[in-house]
Design brief:
An 8-stranded parallel beta barrel has the order 1-2-3-4-5-6-7-10, surrounded by 5 helices. Strands 8-9 form a two-stranded antiparallel sheet. The protein has one domain: Divalent-metal-dependent TIM barrel enzymes (TIM Barrel), CATH 3.20.20. It contains 13 helices and 10 strands. The radius of gyration is 22 Å and the shape is globular. α7 packs across α8 and α10 runs parallel beside α11. It is α/β, with parallel strands linked by helices. The protein is about 40% helix and about 15% strand.
């Protein structure tokens, strides 16, 4: 085991806006640092915080961004293309809804929208290289989510074809990230074709085990599916390259379960909460990460149906800081006891 979890860091996307202090990279970094954060994840679709085209073309511009963050005692942890990534692969049923994530000139033109999304990912790879980053946060998109329930019966080969095409579209993007030495960490969540461990394995198999295909671990999405999010770490720990700290709770009733009956967020059986207010065992999560030598960032991704975002951000920094486990020290029973004495060992075992 090597390294330890870094943090606390914060996802800036939920807070970016036109009002101070959320309207510029310098101002939002000042705000985050004042709350006790040590790192920031930048949403590449928000021009108030980063010019992605410029970042891909100019190392000097990236050094300027790094300098702004460092001036506030912050590190840029990752770039995120969680919006653009979803547009790499879209089932036509979602065309109109997803058009809002893309430039106006691509709306109503799915092929042009998809080309734009791929170009965004390729620029994010170059920008990540200029920033010296090791991981990138994104989402897979996909074709099969409308068929997640097996009724009506799915056509034979439908799921296999969906994942083959998803892998075909993502492979050149992953290759581009491989060239710059950056892992692509996919958010595992409903709405994407890659939404749990089984679908991640399908995706990885279709990609022939691509080295850069990684996981953005967010236990809230797993809890809301009633998946064992600690066992998930046991299984996929080697692929986990990013970690979002977000809480959730699941309280089924006689009227609602996992699907939550189309209820608004505050009335759902499963709903997002601020860290510590939900049911995620973060003590267990941070302990597992320490046990497995995860040495990247613990990043607050604030989403709660009840509390104010700024309150959650303020409390989140201390929540993460208090749960980071300092690794690297062997347990008392595991510490070396001196040189091996074979005669002593045989006597202890009753051997001649």
């Amino acid at each position: 085991m090597t390294g330890m979890v870094k943090g606390p860091a914060i996802v800036l996307a939920p807070f970016a806006g036109d009002a101070a202090p959320f309207h510029s990279f310098d101002a939002i970094c000042r705000w985050a640092a004042a709350l006790g954060y040590k790192g920031v994840q930048i949403p590449t679709w928000d021009g108030r915080l980063i010019d992605l085209t410029r970042a891909a073309a100019s190392k000097a511009y990236c050094e300027e961004l790094t300098g702004i963050a460092a001036g506030h005692g912050l590190t840029i942890t990752q770039l995120s293309t969680c919006l653009q990534g979803q547009l790499v692969a879209v089932n036509p049923v979602y065309d109109e809804a997803f058009d809002g994530f893309a430039p106006e000139e691509t709306r109503g033109r799915p092929r042009e929208r998809q080309k734009w999304a791929v170009a965004q990912l390729l620029m994010a790879a170059e920008a990540s290289r200029h920033l010296g980053l090791k991981a990138h946060a994104t989402a897979s998109g996909g074709f099969a989510w409308p068929f997640v329930h097996p009724s009506p019966r799915r056509a034979p080969g439908l799921i296999e074809t969906a994942f083959e095409e998803l892998a075909r579209r993502w492979k050149p993007i992953l290759n581009a990230f491989d060239e710059v030495g950056v892992d692509v960490a996919f958010a595992i969540r409903p709405g994407e074709d890659v939404f749990d461990g089984a679908t991640f394995e399908r995706f990885l198999e279709a990609l022939k085990g691509h080295e850069r295909c990684a996981i953005l671990y967010d236990p809230s999405h797993l809890l809301l599916q009633q998946l064992d999010y600690l066992a998930f770490l046991d299984i996929y720990r080697e692929r986990v390259k990013a970690f979002h700290v977000r809480d959730a709770e699941f309280n089924p009733t006689g009227r609602q379960g996992v699907y939550s009956g189309y209820a608004p967020s505050v009335e759902r059986a499963g709903r997002f909460r601020s860290p510590g207010d939900g049911q995620v065992d973060f003590g267990g999560v941070f302990s597992r990460l320490a046990q497995y030598g995860y040495s990247s960032w613990a990043t607050l991704d604030r989403e709660c149906c009840l509390d104010h975002g700024e309150d959650g951000a303020r409390e989140g920094a201390e929540f993460i800081r208090r749960r980071i486990v300092r690794g690297g020290e062997p347990g008392r029973d595991d510490r070396p006891g001196g040189a091996v004495n074979k005669k002593q060992i045989k006597r202890a075992l009753g051997l001649r």
